[in-house]
Amino acid sequence: MIATLSAALPPLALMPQWLDPEHIVREFGFLAVLVVVFAECGLLAFFLPGDSLLFTTGVMANSGSPIFLIDQPIWLLCVTISLAAIAGDQVGFLIGRKAGPALFNRPDSRFFKQEYLSRAQEFFTRYGGRTIFLARFVPIVRTAAPLVAGASGWNYADFVRWNVLGGIVWGAGVTALGYALGGVDFINDNIEGILILIVAVSVLPIAVEMWVARRRGRAAAAGADDGS
What we know:
This protein has helices spanning 2-8, 21-28, 30-42, 51-62, 74-99, 101-104, 114-127, 131-134, 141-151, 156-181, 185-189, 191-227.
C-alpha cells in the first residue's frame, strides 16, 4: 500500500520537493508535520505548505502507513495538529505585540513582503474579530493575521477565543477530510491534482482581493483624472 501511495503522490509541480507535502510526511514523519504547522502559523514561514500538508497527512493516515507516528488514531492526529496550529498563532500574536512598529518597517525579502501584512490588515478591516478564524483558510493571511493582531494591540481574550476555534476547525477539519477521502480510489489516483486544486482554492480569496483592489484603484485614478 505504501508503494502505491508513494507512486500516487509525486512532488507537486508548483513547489520544490522539500516543500512537497507527501515528501515532508514520508521523509520526516508526523513530528515534522507539527513543526511545519506551528512555523507556518506563527513564525513568518509564509512559504510553508498548510492546507495541502494537512490533507496529505489525513490521506496517508488512512492508508495505514507505518511512517513515523502516522499510524496513530485519526483523533490523536487531529488533536495534536490543532494544538500545533493554536500554539503557532499564539506565538505569532506575541511576536506581533513585542515587535510592534518594527514588524511593519521590516524590509521585503524573498519570503516576506510588506504586502502580506497589508492583506491581513484588509481582512481585519472587513471581518473584524472573525479575521483570526477566517484567515485560517487563506494562505499568507493565515500567517500574517496573528502578527497584525498582536501589533495592533487586539484584545488578547478575544484573540484566544477565535484562535482556538479556528485552530480546531482548520487543523482537525482539513486533516479529517483527507482521512475521510483517503479511502476513495479517485482521490488516491489523482492526489497531485487534488492538492494543486486545494492550493488554487486556498489562494483564490487573495487573488479576488487583489483584483478588486486594482479595479478600485483604476476607478479612483480615472475619477481623479475626470475631476481635473
